[in-house]
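sorry for the late reply, my laptop died twice this morning and i had to redo everyting from scratch. anyway the thing you sent over, i finally got around to it. pasting the sequence first so we're on the same page, its 329 residues, then the predicted structure underneath. double check i copied it right bc i was rushing
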Amino acid sequence: MQKYGLVIHGGAGVIRRNEMPPALEAQFRAKLAEALAAGYARLEDGDPALDAVTAAINVLEDCPLFNSARGAVLNADGLCELDASIMSGRTLEAGAVAGLNHIKNPINLARDVMEKSAHVMMAARGAEKFAQSLGYELVPNDYFQTDLRRAQLAKARAQETAGPAAFDRHGRVTFATVDDNYLLHEAKFGTVGCAALDHEGNLAAGTSTGGMTNKKFGRVGDSPIIGAGTYANNATCAISCTGWGEFFIRVSAAHDVSARMEYTGASLQEAATATLARVSRLGGNGGLIAIDARGQVTMEFNSPGMYRAGRVGGGQPLVAIYGDEPRGL
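ok and here's the structure:
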């Protein structure tokens, strides 16, 4: 019988046990478990991997704890600006959206770009015009915003005005900030994603994010870029990445994992470890989740923690947050 299962993430970053209030940790674990159960239920019902991916990500997009849709970080204009992508491992078809301001569940629109248009990526007003043509309701941007994210933006603006803290070690402008709240230590992290394998042996992956706090000039990270933040191929694996998007783009991280498996015969774990090492060497950090065609799972990251969960083949579900917890099933 074909093994099936899925793995999800809610972002990687400076997530430490001694800084996490127990009540809030319980909320994170409960929501990760809920998203995992939603996706896994679709697989148990015999639904395709794409359905499992969207079901799991919808739960995370609707939760203000994560930097995706409701609860997304704010850009320099004080707005939530959302990106997402999805890919089918069976057909290598893909859909992506970027710069959305009014779509409640960006992953759903990314899937509609894949299935109901001749394109792979749509952006900003054009993407939302396409959504309206399909009957989507546009929601006010305030729907996505939270007091926590407004406070984060205020601190980012103050730090940017101060000068040196707004630049990286190479003197380049970052527009990111380090917050004194443990949730916000790394403003560039917080993406959500899912990778799934269904009863038919088909793989799929999806990613959804609000990007970086205080981002300017229509910045787009790796999440909506096929091959950088998301990739799926039935011959190898399905992957969703989270972290400092500029570095994941530069190494085509998601596709790199798949290519290592396809071209060198590397295992999923070997490929994921090698790809993340490339990201690290450039100075980037974050993580990825992946499942391969045999149902092997990895949850690899080079940051102190990553919100993650997974379940495969009728086994027990895993929900984890910290670096000292399991990274596979």
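The mean pLDDT is 91.
thats about all i looked at so far, will dig more tmrw
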